[in-house]
Amino acid sequence: MDAFIDGLMSKMTIEEKIGQLNLVTAGEATTGSVVSTDVESKIKAGNIGGIFSMTSPARIRKAQELAVKESRLKIPIIFGMDVIHGYKTIFPIPLGLAATWDMPLIQKTARVAAVEASADGLNWTFSPMVDISRDARWGRISEGSGEDTYLSSRIAREMVIGYQGDDLSKNNTLMACVKHFALYGAAESGRDYNTTDMSLHRMYNEYLPPYKAALDAGAMSVMTSFNDINGVPASANHWLLTDLLRKDWKFNGLVVTDYTAVNELIDHGLGDLQKVSELSLKAGVDMDMVGEGFLTTLKKSLDEGKVSEDDINRACRFVLEAKYRLGLFEDPFKYCNEDRAKKEILTVEHLKLAREAAGKSFVLLKNENNSLPLKKQGTVAVIGPLANTGANMPGTWSVSADLNNTQSLVEAMRSVLGNKVNIVTHLGANLTDDPALQERSTMFGRTIPRDDRAPEEIIADAVKVSQEADVIIAALGESSEMSGESSSRTDLNIPESQKRLLEALVKTGKPVVLVLFAGRPMTLTWENEHVPAILNVWFGGTETGKAVADVLFGDVNPSGKLPATFPQNVGQLPMYYSQKNTGRPLAKDAWFQKFRSNYLDVNNEPLYPFGYGLSYTNFEYGAIKLDKSSISKTDQIKVTVSVKNNGNFDGEEVVQLYLQDLVGSQTRPVKELKGFQKIFLEKGKSKEVEFILKDEDLRFYNQKLEFVSEPGKFKVYVGTNSRDVQEAEFELMD
Ligand code: NOJ
Known about the structure:
By secondary structure, the protein is an alpha/beta fold. It contains 22 helices and 27 strands. It has a 6-stranded mixed sheet, sandwiched between helices. It has a 5-stranded parallel sheet with strand order 4-3-2-1-10. The structure holds 1-deoxynojirimycin.
C-alpha cells in the first residue's frame, strides 16, 4: 500500500491532493442547510475525494466513471452514508439495540446493514455512534448505546466487526466510522451541538473508552464532533485528534469532520474560513465534510506558509489509504452490482432478523397481575397517534428506510393475528396539541395525521371505540423525529394531549396496556402508578409492528433491559447509576435527610434503574459466591450465581455484574458494570452463571492518567438490574 500511494502521490498536484480532502453530498438526505454544488465538474477536475448519501449501483457507477475515466489521475471516489441501524431493512434504533444486551445479535444487524448498503453501491458508513449520554433531554441519546461505558464499549466492538467483517476489501463490507469524536453526548443541558466541559478523569474513565473500543476492533475512520471540548471545538482540537488519537492510541485511519463542522468553527469564534480550515487540518482532520473550507482555502494557506505541504500530504495519504483498503484502486466498481442490489436487500432472512431484534429490544417496564401476555381472542382496541403510522416505525436516522412500505402497528397486528383477534382503532389524540410542535416533530416524511376537532371530542370518539373492546392498547409516546439530531426536549413526559387520552382510557375500567414509543428515557411517573402494563418499544425498525404483536400475545417473552436510567422527572438529569457517593450520601432507603445530598421534592431514586426490564417469567437468583476472598494482581476471582426460571414461560435474562472500588486514591463510582451474560432458561430450569474478574477489571485512570488498580476492598454486585443486586466483598492484595 505504501509504495502504491507514494507512487500515486508523486504524480499529484497540490490541488489534486486538496481535492481528495473534499467530501460532498449528492444533494440527497442532507443533514444541514448547506448542499454541495457542481459535483460533476468537481469530480472531473479532481476536486472530490468522497460523496455521501448517493445510492444505487447505477448512479454510483456513473459518478465513479466520471472519476476514473475523466479525472486526470483516475482516483476512485469513496461513497459513504449514514447507515445507522440498518440500510433498507431497518433494525431498532441504536438505544433499542443496546437494550437487547445481545452481542451476537447486534453484530448480525451491523453485518446485514453492511451487506445491504454495499449491495446498493456504498462502501463507508458513518456508524457506530458511541457517544455516552446521561441526559435524556439530548435527542441523540437515541442514536447511541446509552449511559454506560462498559456496555457501550462492548456494543461498539460488535458494530465495527459487523460492518467491516474480516476484510475491508470484500465487496460486502463497509468501512466503519466511529463518531462523534468526542464527548458529543455530554452537551450541556442536553441541547444539541452544545458545549462540553469535562475533567480528564471523567473523560478517560467514562466517556473515551467506547471510542477506543471501536478503534481496537479495527474501525478505520473517525468522525469529529461538533462540540467544544474544554475551550477548543473537537474539529480543531489538536490534543484530541493528534496527541490522543494518533499518538497515544496509534490510530492510522481516516479522520473526517462532521457536516460543515470546519465552517462552524467560525461561529465557535476561532476565525474566518481560511483560519479555521488551517486550524482543523493542523489539528489532525483529513477530510472536510461538505463545507469546502479545505478545498477553497488550503492552497492559499500553503502559499502563505500557514499550513505545510506535509500537513496536506498527511491528510491526502489517509484518504487514499482508506480507498486502498476498500480495494477501490483494484476495482472501483466492485460495489456496483445491480444483481446484488436486487437479491440482497430486504431479504426474508434480513426481515426475520429485524423482527427478532425488535422483539428483543422491547423493555417490559410494568406488568401488574400478569396483564401481559394477552390471549389471541376477542376485540382489542389499538388507540393513539402511533397506532396507524408506518412512517414512524423505523425510528430516527433511518435515511434509507422505505417509509411507504413499512407497516403500521395496526396493519402489522392484523397481519400477524389474522381473524383470531378483532382489532378496532382510533387516533384518540393528536401527537401534541400544538400543531407547530407536531410539525417540527414529524419531519422527513414521518407524518402523523391531525384531527382538528377539540381534543375532548377526539378522546370521546376513541373511548366509544374502546367500549367494544376487551383490552385497550394505547400506542402513545414520541414520534420518531422527537428524538435524533436537533431534537432535544426539556419535557420528557408523554405529550399532554396523549396523557389526557391515556387518562380517559384508564377511566373506562378496561385493562389498558401502554405500548410506549420513545427515542429516549421518558418520565412516566403517572403512567407507572395508573397503567397496569407498560411495554417500551422504542422504535423497532421495519418489523416493529409484528414484533409488538409477538410480545403482546406471548409468542416472544420480553427480555430487553434499559441501557439508560429512566428518571422520575426531568429535574433529576443528568442521571446515571454509576454516580459518585458524595461526602453526604443519603442513608440507605431514606427518602430525605436534611443536610444530605438530595432534593426536597423528589427522592434520589430513578423511576426505572439502568439494567431494568421485566419478563413474563420470574428469575430467582441464588446466593452469590466468590471462590476467594482475596486476590493478588496476577490472580483472578470467580464469581458464581445460580439463576432459576421459576415462572411459567421460557425466557431470557441478562445477569449483570457490577463492581465498586471501596477505597482509593480518588473517588470511584458506587457501581460500575463489569460483566453481563444473557442466558436462556426454559421454565423450571436453572443455571450456574460464572464471571471471571481480573486485575484489569479493577483498573481505572488515576490522577496521572495511569491505568491502574489499587489494593484494597472491592464489592461485587450481581443481579437483574443495577438496583436489585446481591453483594459480596473481596480484597485486592499488594
Ligand atoms: C450530522 C451528524 O451529526 C452525523 O452523525 C452524520 O453522520 C452527518 N451529519 C452526516 O449525515
